[in-house]
Amino acid sequence: MRIRFRHYLAVTTVSTFALILLGVYTGKIGAGLACEGRWPFCDGWLGLFPATWPSFVEWFHRLVAMLVGFMILGAGLIAWRNDHDRRLQFALAVAIVMLPVQILFGANTVLNFGVWASMAHQTAAQVIFGALVFATSLSFWDAGSEERERTGAVSADD
């Protein structure tokens, strides 16, 4: 497995974690409420650009979510095109399948702000993050196995 792909997966996973933290802050200040139940629009110019700090936080969270979503899609595409380990492909498939679910749950937190909406949104985020952690761990584990085979290192189990 190429080192650049492993690092891309690691950056994607860390970016997802940062997005989750940003989402926690967004929910804590009630930034989705600044959009007055209008999704995908918010307040400000043409409903696209923020007018207040809370609406900026909501807007920025959506922007980062879109960028991280594209990073996840890119990781999946690379994994399939380069025929990586099936377990890694499966983990990335779980993350990709959860992306539209996460988007719908995110919209629901703006439209129907409440505990259940926030909990569903956070749960989907954790599933995506868990799948990425598994894929990233697997990519580094496989790299270590390849290195041990290449150098002829023997484990204690042999």
Structure characterization notes:
The protein has 158 residues and is an all-alpha fold. The chain has one domain (3-142). Helix content is 75%, strand content 0%. The radius of gyration is 19 Å and the shape is elongated. The model has no long low-confidence stretch (mean pLDDT 84).
Give me the secondary-structure topology.
Blueprint: H1 3-28, H2 53-81, H3 86-111, H4 115-151
Helix pairs in contact: 1-2, 1-4, 2-3, 3-4
Question: What separation lies between the terminal Cα atoms?
Answer: 24 Å
What structural category do the secondary elements indicate? Answer: mainly alpha
- Order of SSEs: HHHH
Radius of gyration: 19 Å
How much of the residues is beta strand, in percent? under 5%
Instruction: Supply the number of helical segments.
Output: 4
Proportion of helical residues: over 70%
Strand segment count: 0
How many independent structural domains?
Answer: 1
Mean pLDDT: 84
Instruction: Give the low-confidence spans.
Output: none
Shape: elongated
Q: How does the major sheet shape up?
A: none
Q: How would you summarize this macromolecular structure in one to three sentences?
A:
With 158 residues, the protein is mostly helical. Helix 1 runs antiparallel to helix 2 and helix 2 runs antiparallel to helix 3.
